């Protein structure tokens, strides 16, 4: 029990040994009154959506009360400059090019939404230096692209495109020479990101052996394995499929030297970016038989809209390319499925809502 003398002794403890007094009882410092905040009015925000962004995304934005204008096509640079002046948010896909000149005219622009995987159609340096946020939809269409590549692997191995074209012309050509099962063949994936890794799983399910090359070390899925260099992959793979972004390091990464390292009679698939493959070099490799077939979903220059525009005036080698056999050409439709476009619409709209 503490005595009165003990309490008195405690009271005589020197100040230097006392615990500091609690701040809870101290008077709070004076604060300035809070600033009044203007209520956020969604009708003040103008959103421009180009290239037929999926209706689901449009409905989400309209449902929140934003002022939304949606167009089905892309716009030229001059048209964009006129249209974007008072816009706060713009949503685009792969055809629209937001150059520094366009962004400079967008005095109110806060956000660029790329309703697709890539952002190379936006001048990211200008956007970053001017506080314009840029986001994309990196996950929404991965399955659709991976399924397209699987379909193309089988179609190339069986020469299905040629047989179908012949039948459309009335020619019955029942042949099996140089047609293969894909089981037991090796698929080489260049770029083991969202698409490449999902493709890896699907490919193993149909009996393909999978190797991959990436600039960083990544954990393998299933029984796939990473190889140290691109050359290693090219020399081992029966099918080479490209899934890399458009960067200075990837432009022209598959050209004459790389085709020379590929196995005789191998196949190339490009569903990434048109700048990655040297098309004249591919034409030469297919004519020589080094490459037995190819599937291209992307091109260095792509039309701004649908129509009869894929010709030599767009790309000088256009006519030569179309003359090749066992060549699948598709108009950048890797992610164009109902499921993917709906998911992209939602994934692209959500950042705008926040």
UniProtKB/TrEMBL annotation:
Domain D-isomer specific 2-hydroxyacid dehydrogenase catalytic: 47-347
InterPro entries: D-2-hydroxyacid_DH, D-isomer_2_OHA_DH_cat_dom, D-isomer_DH_CS, D-isomer_DH_CS1, D-isomer_DH_NAD-bd, NAD(P)-bd_dom_sf
Bias (Polar residues) ranges: 1-11
CDD domains, per the entry: PGDH_3
Entry's family note: Belongs to the D-isomer specific 2-hydroxyacid dehydrogenase family.
Protein's name according to its UniProt entry: D-3-phosphoglycerate dehydrogenase 2
Residue ranges of domain D-isomer specific 2-hydroxyacid dehydrogenase NAD-binding in the record: 151-334
Record keyword NAD present: yes
Region of interest: Disordered: 1-30
PANTHER family the UniProt entry points to: D-ISOMER SPECIFIC 2-HYDROXYACID DEHYDROGENASE FAMILY PROTEIN (AFU_ORTHOLOGUE AFUA_6G10090)
Entry superkingdom: Eukaryota
Keyword Amino-acid biosynthesis: yes
Signal peptide: none
Compositional bias annotation for Low complexity: 12-23
Keyword terms of this UniProt record: Amino-acid biosynthesis, NAD, Oxidoreductase
